[in-house]
Amino acid sequence: MEWFKSQFGLRTNVLRPVPEYSMNPLYWLGALTAMAFGLQALTGLLMLIYYVPTVDQAYSSTQYIIQYVPLGQLLESIHLYGAYAMILLALLHLFRGYFVSVQKRPRQMMWVIGMLMGLTVLGLGLTGYLLPWTVVSKSATDVSIGMLSFLPAQIGPILTFLIAGDGSSAGELTRFFDLHIIVLPAALLSLLALKMFLFEAHGPARPVSGPANTKEIPWFPSVYLYFAMLGCVFIGVLVVIASLFPIVLPIQFSAAAASNYVPQPEWYFLWMYQILKFASFEGSGIYFALGLVTLILAGLVLLPFLDRGSERNPKLRPMYVTIGLVAIAELLVLTIWGYLTPGQVITDANAFAVIGTTALAVALVSAYFFRSSLQAEVTNIRGRLLKLLVTPFKNRWMTSVFLIFLGLASVSFANIVASLSGGAGASPGLILNLAALSVSFYLMLRILRNLTLVQRSNAR
After folding, report:
1. What is the spatial distance between Cα 179 and Cα 162, in angstroms, rounded to a whole number?
2. Integer Cα distance of 141 and 20 in angstroms
3. For residue 60, what pLDDT is reported?
């Protein structure tokens, strides 16, 4: 490694010693996820020797691997359960990172890249699910593609074409095959390389409480043997599960077979599928459901920029811990509920009762355990809120100027809307209103900035 470092001009050694506190299996969930990805690549390449990505031969070639290729059924089973393990490990890595707040400065971009990697892993699961061309996989995939039609007209058709091709079965299978073996793996490897670069810069996150044992452990042989044992246990468990519960291929897709089958997505998408089955989200209501899911995912990706405090100890973060526990409980409930109610529309009353009861029960239990720190946090939030509310009244001059520009901006905006809806083209009045709106908006932002600085100064 030293020779490699000198030849390529690297500043750090990628196999440098690690702190002793990171010799914990929970610190290696991301590494095990990457290991699962390597196993998926290996088993996938072996299956590619026999698999034919065409509508006529996709099913038969998969069946040939299972029935006639030596250890072919074990190979297919390991690839299936390896995909499940990869998604499950990524979820565990996400929640572990969330509860110990690894997204805090300076690791904000590591969190964002990790979330993008997680979404890529889900994309690999979705695209690979279709390739055997069974009635189960094809019907479930069609449901997922159908949701794209509810996106805005400016992006829905484009995404549908990029993901599903020209709309034919052959185009859909070819596009998913290309995404699964080329595009998404390349994206995941690129993100992994970028995250490893950041990891080398920042190192593992320190423990959230207590003194950290920073004694350095050499990579070879200690760290190497430690991860080798973790990896061997992981692969051993995977092989045992694949041997005890070998893959059973459902019947081949056909229009007649699909008409007698109620489509269900795989378990990692069941929670989303169950939300879409709520009565309020049927028909045009699906726009609100997709918006809600998008908002949740966007909030997770942007979490480092929303949760900007410095505290990482879960015991001192009752609000965020409660939100995380509620999210886990809702995911489990929605997944199991979706599995037990295939194709059933859920009434609003049942949806409210199940979702609300789950959230309330978890919140009450969490509030009981966090009652002391929760009371302190509520008092702190209340104090900051009161200071924020009285800031405009303590700075009446800036507030008055802000209200003047707010009125000017409102009038200018109303005039612009009236001119455009009346079909009027570019006119001196329209240009004047645009200028007044722009200047007013800029000055309002400056005043808000000054008020914020004053509020922060008073808070200190």
Report:
1. 10
2. 45
3. 96
Joined together, the tokens standing for residue 247 give: 């893959």
Tell me the C-alpha distance between 170 and 337, whole Å: 34
Check if the beta carbon of residue 358 is closer than 8 Å to that of residue 292.
no
Looking at residue 415, its pLDDT comes to 85
| Contact status, residue 373 vs residue 318, Cβ threshold 8 Å | yes
pLDDT value, residue 81: 97
Condensed to tens digits (0 to 9), the pLDDT of residues 292-346 reads: 888 889 999 999 998 888 888 888 888 889 999 999 999 999 999 999 998 889 9
| Contact present, 53 and 62 (Cβ < 8 Å) | no
Backbone φ, ψ for residue 348 (5° rounding): -60, -35
Q: How far apart are CA 251 and CA 409, in angstroms?
A: 64
Instruction: Judge whether 415 and 433 are in contact, CB under 8 Å.
Output: yes
pLDDT per residue over 181-211, tens digit each? 999 999 999 999 999 888 888 888 888 876 6
Beta bridge partners of residue 19, listed in sequence order: 216
Of 47, 300, 335, 33, residue with least CA distance to 180 = 47
In angstroms, the CA 146 to CA 136 distance is 16
Nearest-angstrom CA–CA distance, 92 and 328: 11
How do residues 2-12 score in pLDDT, each as one tens digit?
787 778 777 66
| Both structure tokens of 125 | 């699961």
Give the tens place of pLDDT for each residue, 208-261.
876 667 788 988 889 999 999 999 999 999 999 999 999 999 999 988 888 888
